[in-house]
UniProtKB/TrEMBL annotation:
InterPro entries: DNA_mismatch_repair_MutS-lik_N, DNA_mismatch_repair_MutS/MSH, DNA_mismatch_repair_MutS_C, DNA_mismatch_repair_MutS_core, DNA_mismatch_repair_MutS_N, DNA_mismatch_repair_MutS_sf, DNA_mmatch_repair_MutS_con_dom, MutS
Protein name as it appears in the record: Muts domain V-domain-containing protein
GO MF annotation terms: ATP binding; ATP-dependent DNA damage sensor activity; mismatched DNA binding
PANTHER family per record: DNA MISMATCH REPAIR PROTEIN MSH1, MITOCHONDRIAL, DNA MISMATCH REPAIR PROTEIN MUTS FAMILY MEMBER
Alphabetized UniProt keyword annotations: ATP-binding, DNA damage, DNA repair, DNA-binding, Nucleotide-binding
Biased composition (Polar residues): 45-55
Organism: Lasiosphaeria hispida
Positions of region (Disordered): 45-82, 697-726, 1050-1069
PROSITE patterns assigned to the protein according to its UniProt record, in alphabetical order: DNA_MISMATCH_REPAIR_2
Listed SUPFAM superfamilies: DNA repair protein MutS, domain I, DNA repair protein MutS, domain II, DNA repair protein MutS, domain III, P-loop containing nucleoside triphosphate hydrolases
Amino acid sequence: MLYARSPSVPRLGIACFGSSSRPRLAPTSATVGRLSVQSIQNVATAATPAGATSRSRPRPALAPTSRSSLPLPAHGQVRGKKTRTAVTLGELPLPVAPKQLPQGLIVAEPLPLEDHEPTYPTVVLQARRNMQKFDGCVLLTRVGGFYELYFEQAEEYGPLLNLKVAQKKTNAGPVSMAGFPFFQLDRFLKILVQDLNRHVAIAEEFPNDAAKKVKSGGLLHDRKVARIVTPGTLIDENFMDPYANNYVMAIHLPASAESEPPPASPADTAPKEVDVGLAWLDLSTGYFFTQPTTLSLLGSVLSRVSPREIVLDKEMESQRGHDIMAVLEEERYLVSYSPPGELQNLSDWQPMLEADIPARTAEKFTDNEVKAGGLLLHYVGDRLRGLSMKLQPPVRHESLQVMNIDKNSMRALEIKQTIRDGAFKGSLLHAIRRTVTKSGARLLNEWLSSPSTSLEVISHRQDLVSRFLQNEDLRDAVIVLLRRSHDSQRLVQKFALNRGEPDDLLRLASTIKAAEDIVSILNSVISSQPPPETDAQHEDCLSTMIGRISLDQPLKLAKRIWDAIDEEGLVQQHQIEDSETGEMLALAQEIVKAEGSEADTALLPKGAVAKAAGTNAASGKKKPTSLRDFYGEDSEVWIMKPGASPIITRLHAEFASLLQDKIALTETLRARFNAASLTLRWTPGLGHICHLRGKDARRSPTTAADDDDDAAAAAAPVRTLSSSRTTRSVHQPEWTVLGERLDKARFQIRTEEQRVFGALRAHVVHCLVKLRRNASVLDELDIATSFARLAADQNLTRPVLHDSLASPSPPQTIIIGGRHPTVEGGLAEAGRTFQRNDCLVGAPGHGRAWLITGPNMAGKSTFLRQNALITVLAQVGCYVPADHASLSVVDAIFSRVGSADSLFHNQSTFMVEMLETAAILRQATPRSFVIMDEVGRGTTPEDGAAVAFASLHHLLHVNRCRVLFATHFHDIADLVAQHRMRLGDGGPVGAVEMYCTDVEEDGQGGFVYVHRLRKGINRQSHALKVARLAGLPEQAIRVARGVLEKSGVVDTESREHSEVTHKTADTVG
């Protein structure tokens, strides 16, 4: 027996066979789609036979829907309307044997319900599907000339981007949307990616072919995500920092480290050496590095590399309490998560590399490095959405001979930014950067982060600087040529990612030409001006640089580019694009001016206001001819020269012939119709038309054909397509045929241009290795010439370096007349001079550690930092600010300077200080150079002095390194004497020398700081003088002085209210 169903529930049928019992709905837990409660009641009623009531049978138990959780009524089932339902045979269950017929109540499986949700427009529906697929990204959907956001993303990010959020009316209800013109993509990507650290999925329009159009119901475009842009995977965006690398780093932790629980108490926070693998790359240049390290040293590596994005395994997303999270949160790194992927072996990396990994290098990779590299490549490949990439073979940073500068020292020495405000100005990099290319500036940044420890590398760099310093003409000539080059590292990588443009080809050709000219100049200098016999290594350094440049293939590439690319055509094309952009901005300005407010006007780009002003000034006059009209269809703008290929040459000849035919046809039709204003045009709406103006438009063109001798032409029909008071557009078959031939010729030329351009791209990729090597040489020449300019401008000296491992003498740092490279420049701007000081740590007759005391503001910290910075500059290959410098190579620099707390991590100022001190005592080696300032000041004087002395004792006896130790705890000097650690005490531990700064007073309350170091101990800190200079109230000064007088520290005969003058014309604080 079949029972009727409610018409509101599609295709729901319940059948019962072989039983006289009344069927009833069985309980089910299936989720019901968008059915209302009334519809559910109708279903239950329709399935109940006549005569049955809710009391005579149990009510069906229906699960609440996902959209509505309203309970069913307790009683009062409403009977549905009787309807006739037609059921096909295929909808009935298959017959069963009589013995298998179920008796009693039959449990019916719920049938799937059709989804009758209102449909969105195609564009909105495509965007919704992409948002669901890429749920962690902000989706920008290309719609014609705009990129648009929809739904909740429009509401969230529209205000952040200063975009107006509108409501798009659809059958499914209003949809929030916001958008911006396509040419402003970089502007909004900068806000989303760089400022807000968001991942942005860009969905582009892909034309559907005939088959896809039929399959999709006639859709012209399919919108698919072509790329996911993240802070660490930028390629060629205009907002990228051109002076710094844009690294994305993957970190792999072994499974045991991932599952290790966090420490339960502070007592369990002892350092644990957990091995981790690192891999990082710059997608804009193709640089690829790996390094094994430990979790305790991870912070220092991150400070050196400065990645924009960190990638961890997806499993780490749930382990928020892991130790690595504290390291990453401390510097607020952006962390992304990714599955490990399938690139688990070095051989799997090969398709993404420009060359094979050398066998000897491949043997050295640790398992953690390989896992980190596989995770990184999988993540980057997923972000590029199938875009091919060619990276340089990975370089193991462990095999590089570089100085280690931990994160605390990088910050305290202000190598790349200042401590106070994180500014670039005031840093060491700002003080020495004189490079003229962006890629050279990036390389200098890398060198400062990782100074070399190889004497061969350092000497080669110094030799180059010396040669350019001695030959000013050579230096200036190379700098001029370097200015003509471009950022070829990033240019080449764009082509490796299949993203280069014709302009990039011209820039690359210009760079190749600059490299050729530089090689020519260097060769001429070597042949005409050989260096003195005593300085013959300079010739070797220039010859070495020339030998590293390969020009054969690149010059052929450059010639091919110049022979193919039409520079004038590119200029015209850019003018047309700028004109269209300006017209759109001007239109936006006019609309905002008419309908918006001043606040809306402020949101427009500055160019819109200027363009609108020019438009308004020309109002009332005839609209000037646009560039597109000037370069019309007959004056096509081509990016390739006619001789770029034989096919283009033939096509241009055919096209020129067709243009002559068009001119002849125009004259013929003008004579035939007696219409001098007739022109042949093409419009999107009407196609190929004959356009008439003025009096010619007011007269029917067929009347002019009566006087024509050609009867066939006179009889040809002329159909008017559109007309107005002053214009008329008519159809002429002859022009239609010729116009289609012209369109076909244009299309063929464009197609051949794209083929030639693709061949040029392939040629660039073929020369990829040589172009990158040449670019590296140009970057090094840029740094060498900049160092030479710096040395000439600031009177710098070439340091002498030697390896203490190959010398029987102990490591030493001898600096005569040293100056602080950044402070000196700041004083010079203020018209003041810097007090030079000598540093003879480890020199014969001098101690391996200097204990420095003296007043506040007397230059102790400046002296410590300047010697560390001079060491860094020397091992970078730069000349140093000193009269003389002789240094043993340093493997690591450690700095404990300044004070700060970390309340977020529950660490007090003293705790932070002790953590930094502990790291130094664990890691310093006999080749290290350590500077420590005011260790122990975060606690009581007694405890602080004890901790400070213990640190100095450990550095001398265990680490046995070079130390500069500044303190206000004068008891440390007594402890050094008691433990016979002074240099004069002799013995194996006698290595400490006492030095100090001082204050000179005039007896009238005036004083001047003496920043010149002298031997001895200064037990006066003169804190009240600094307090008075800082503006401490006089009453507070008197109270403090009284306390000190009672303790016997301050001389009671000195004046309390004397005027204090600070004379520092020749000093620095």
